[in-house]
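Provenance

Sequences were taken from public entries as deposited. Structures were produced by running a predictor on each sequence independently, with no templates supplied. The record for Metalloregulator ArsR/SmtB family transcription factor from Nannocystis bainbridge is shown for reference.
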Amino acid sequence: MPADLDRTLAALADPTRRGVIDLLRRSPRRASEIAEALDMTRPAMSRHLRVLRKAGLVREDAQDDDARVRVYRLEQAPFTGLRGWLDEVEEFWADQLQAFKAHAERRARGRRA
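Predicted structure for Metalloregulator ArsR/SmtB family transcription factor:
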C-alpha cells in the first residue's frame, strides 16, 4: 500500500477528522467555524486540521482581505487515490463472488443430473 494511502487512512481513522471532511464537502470553512460546528476548542481543532493538512486531505488558504484568516478546503488527489484502492478491493470481492456463484451453480446442476 502506498505511503500516501496509509496517511489518508490514518487521518480518516478519527471520527472528528471525518466530521471535518463532511463539513468541508459542503463548503470551505474557517477553522473557528469547523470547531464551533463540531463543538470543539480551537486548539483541539487545530491539531486535527494539522493532521488532515499533513495527509494532504485539506489545504489552508489565506483570505484575500485578511491574511490572518485561514480557510480550509478539501483536496481531491488523496480521495482519488483512496477511491482507486477501494475500487481494486471491490473488484477483488466481485471476482470472488462471481467464482463462488459459478461453483454453486455447477454443484446445483450436478445434483439435478
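The chain has a mean pLDDT of 89.
The longest strand covers residues 58-62.
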